[in-house]
Amino acid sequence: MASSFAPVEAMVSTVSDAWLMAMKHVIAPGRAYAPMLLSISDLGPDIEDPTIRSIVDAQLLGADCVSVKDNAAMIFPSNLWATRKQLGLERFYDDYINRVLPRVLRRSNIKYGTYFGRLLQSTGLKPDGTKREINQIQFLLDQWEKGRQTNRRPRQSSLQLAVFDPAKDHTGQALRGFPCLQQVGLSTYEQSLTLHAMYPTQLVFDRGYGNYLGLVHLARFLAEQMGLDLAGVNIFVGCPELGAINKAGARNLLATLLVLDP
After folding, report:
1. Does 11 score more than 90 pLDDT?
2. Does the predicted model carry a pTM greater than 0.85?
């Protein structure tokens, strides 16, 4: 019925709560394929519930899915950044492209690249038809710094990071699996930054937790580099699906997490 396609909004303060709300949404009666908007704000130092995280990871392992850690790192490699931060952005980018990414692509379940890799190595054509490769993240940061120095912020519509590439991703495959994340946009107000992520579809059980964690890590990195406070992360999913677990299994899992009654 038509009402099932009205977007559902949830405001939470942790990644764990965002995933729980998404799971509850996708298994609710009459909500199949209905859009959802998750807003994660008031982020403190503890962005996860360690108990929920450990249970989710165990479930993902049992379902032969990518772990939360590896899934999040496809959006932003927080562990690599922690070890390269003092060495600078150029070293961070270079080590990811030349050391981390080739290792990731050798895995049998990751065939088409990573989100972060695409942001660092985006390709296209200039107006004159010549090829261009661009590091979208660094371009955005350079534009922001230029605006800071001239006391004139760049236009909001320029603060965009594109993932979906029609030349690569428009295929006839019945199931491709990547990329689910289409685009990331930023908005700024005074001294705060908000990140917005667009997913036309998403497998909530398989990918949701890691996706949300990776986006928060990316948002924190960008806010830090831009000298802003992180206000929050908004995640829109047009057609959320459950993934590699059935509804009965999902209800039992949520009951274990004290979200639903057994």
Report:
1. yes
2. yes
